[in-house]
């Protein structure tokens, strides 16, 4: 059935319009215009929405890990990984309780949809590398059942699993019993050939280049964890399959130091030297990027997935997002499964990114509310699924992925009835909107969230099933390594590097 979706205000690529309704037929937007005009053109269409809503495109989460419960969501550090420097925090992730991949993805998808997210770039964390070929289809099934689009990134690494470099120096810091335990566990039991065979099979079975419900993409997990040959092979695979690659990069100062220690140049310049930079590539985090490399990223068309909450929680720093946007780098927003409140509130993440990107000093680059709306919608869609997918927009012909926000709740009780004027609405709503004010979410023409409730699943039942099946047995976690990792990387702080100008 055709549907006409109307609202008091519609946000079109970050700009507000009044009396701008949409007509949806199947999974596409087929017409746009004034409400009365569309009703006259399509008299049999169902009317949805109304004067008490804001209509905007579905949000795209440009980088996440689908952990379902977060890393501290169980309410006790004994059952989670305490926030710390990334290099220390990673060593403790094995202590997180294991959730079956289908349930983790299903619940993650339901959480994201509750906040208006209609598509997610999922960077998978396998329980064991050898189990990944079985886990990925289950995770895809979980997201599909939830009703959310997914760009799936199975990861691969081939070096530096324990520390970024100087492995023997690190092992020498450990007491003998811990050294033997860590040395035995420091193995990667998935070869590059086996990984790409798996990727080919997943692509053939699941990649949807027609309706864009599922994308299979390649993920060399991080620049310090992957050799030049693996990164080059991954980018070649992405170009050959007309899909994308996503990689963690420059999340911490120690990753920047690794590049200079290894090659004597910045990470971005090294990736350019090996032909890895291009419009097929998205780099997550990019906190410690060199000022002079920002223009190179823009020239090559590389996307950036900005994860402000995660960068704050793991003490990584603040990425120069306003400068990137000003230079023309396509930047999207990702939650990384590490929002400040462990609640996957995408609207709050947009607000936080906007606030912290606007630095002190009159000469600082400005990041507008309009730019942040784009970072959460069209930009994030382009760097996660590709511009050809038609996501993150409300254009005629685009995919029918829509969000209805409760205008009265966003406006609040004290604002005058006609406030704000339309030119201020993007900033006003970005400052005030929360996930609780998301009332409706449409994905591919289907209302998967109605009146704030999931249409496909009883979330309470899903939560009960997760709790019943939680596996609290730690597998591979090494939180006791923290003090030794701190000591090891403190030595890197003394290295003489070029100053990072911002």
Descriptive keywords:
38% helix, 20 helices, Urease, subunit C, domain 1, 502 residues, alpha/beta, TIM Barrel, four-stranded parallel sheet, nine-stranded mixed sheet, globular, single chain, 2 domains
Task: Explain the overall architecture.
- By secondary structure, the protein is α/β, with parallel strands linked by helices.
- It has 20 helices and 19 strands.
- Strands 1, 2, 3, 4, 5, 16, 17, 18 and 19 form a 9-stranded mixed beta sheet that branches.
- A hairpin with a 2-residue loop joins strand 3 (21-25) and strand 4 (28-33).
- The longest helix has 15 residues, at 132-146.
- It is globular.
- The model is unreliable at 73-78 (pLDDT under 50).
Summarize, please.
The protein is α/β, with parallel strands linked by helices and 502 residues long. The chain contains 20 helices and 19 strands.
Q: What is the CATH fold-level name of the largest domain?
A: TIM Barrel
Mean pLDDT: 93
Morphology call: globular
- Total beta strands: 19
CATH class categorisation of the largest domain: Alpha Beta
What is the end-to-end distance? 53 Å
Q: What's the assembly state of these chains?
A: single chain
Helix content range: 25-40%
Please state the CA-atom Rg, rounded to the nearest Å.
Answer: 23 Å
Q: Architecture of the largest domain, according to CATH?
A: Alpha-Beta Barrel
Sheet with the most strands? 9 strands, mixed
Number of helices in the DSSP assignment: 20
Query: What is the assigned CATH homologous superfamily of the largest domain?
Result: Metal-dependent hydrolases
Weakly predicted, low-confidence segments? 73-78
Coarse structural class: alpha/beta
Percent strand: 15-25%
The number of domains is: 2
């Amino acid at each position: 059935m055709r549907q006409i979706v109307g609202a008091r205000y519609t946000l079109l690529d970050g700009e507000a319009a009044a009396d701008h309704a949409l007509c949806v037929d199947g999974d596409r937007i087929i017409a746009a215009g004034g409400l009365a005009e569309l009703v006259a053109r399509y008299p049999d269409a169902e009317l949805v929405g109304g004067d008490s809503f804001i209509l905007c495109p579905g949000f795209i989460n440009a980088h996440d890990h689908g952990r379902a419960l977060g890393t501290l969501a169980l309410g006790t550090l004994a059952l989670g990984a305490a926030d710390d420097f990334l290099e220390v925090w990673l060593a403790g992730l094995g202590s997180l309780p294991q959730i079956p991949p289908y349930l983790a993805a299903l619940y993650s998808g339901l959480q994201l949809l509750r906040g208006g997210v209609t598509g997610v770039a999922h960077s998978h964390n396998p329980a064991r590398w050898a189990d990944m070929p079985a886990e990925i289809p289950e995770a895809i099934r979980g997201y599909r059942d939830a009703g959310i689009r997914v760009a799936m990134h199975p990861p691969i690494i081939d070096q530096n699993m324990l520390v970024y470099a100087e492995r023997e120096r690190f092992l020498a810091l450990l007491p003998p019993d811990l050294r033997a335990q860590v040395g035995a566990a420091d193995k990667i039991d998935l070869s590059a050939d086996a990984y790409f065979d798996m990727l080919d099979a997943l692509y053939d079975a699941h990649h949807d280049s027609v309706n864009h419900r599922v994308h299979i993409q390649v993920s060399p997990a991080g620049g310090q964890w992957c050799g030049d040959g693996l990164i080059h092979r991954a980018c070649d695979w992405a170009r050959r399959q007309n899909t994308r690659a996503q990689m963690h990069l420059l999340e911490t100062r120690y990753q920047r130091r690794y590049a200079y220690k290894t090659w004597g140049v910045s990470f971005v310049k090294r990736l350019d030297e090996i032909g890895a930079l291009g419009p097929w590539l998205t780099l997550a985090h990019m906190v410690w990027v060199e000022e002079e490399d920002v223009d190179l990223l823009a020239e090559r068309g590389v996307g950036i997935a900005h994860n402000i909450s995660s960068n704050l929680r793991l003490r990584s720093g603040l990425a120069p997002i306003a400068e990137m946007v000003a230079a023309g780098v396509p930047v999207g927003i990702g939650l990384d499964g590490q929002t400040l409140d462990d609640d996957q509130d995408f609207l709050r993440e947009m607000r936080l990114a906007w606030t912290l990107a606007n630095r002190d000093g009159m000469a600082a680059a400005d990041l507008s509310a309009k730019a942040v709306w784009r970072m959460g919608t069209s930009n994030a869609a382009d760097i996660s699924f590709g511009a050809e997918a038609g996501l993150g927009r409300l254009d005629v012909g685009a995919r029918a992925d829509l969000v209805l926000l409760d205008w009265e709740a966003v406006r609040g009780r004290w604002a005058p009835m006609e406030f704000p004027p339309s030119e201020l609405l993007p900033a006003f709503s970005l400052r005030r909107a929360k996930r609780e004010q998301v009332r409706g979410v449409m994905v591919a023409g289907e209302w998967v969230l109605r009146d704030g409730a999931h249409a496909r699943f009883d979330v309470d039942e899903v939560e009960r099933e997760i709790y019943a099946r939680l596996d609290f047995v730690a597998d591979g976690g090494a939180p006791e390594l923290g003090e030794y990792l701190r000591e090891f990387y403190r030595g890197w702080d003394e290295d003489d590097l070029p100053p990072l100008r911002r």
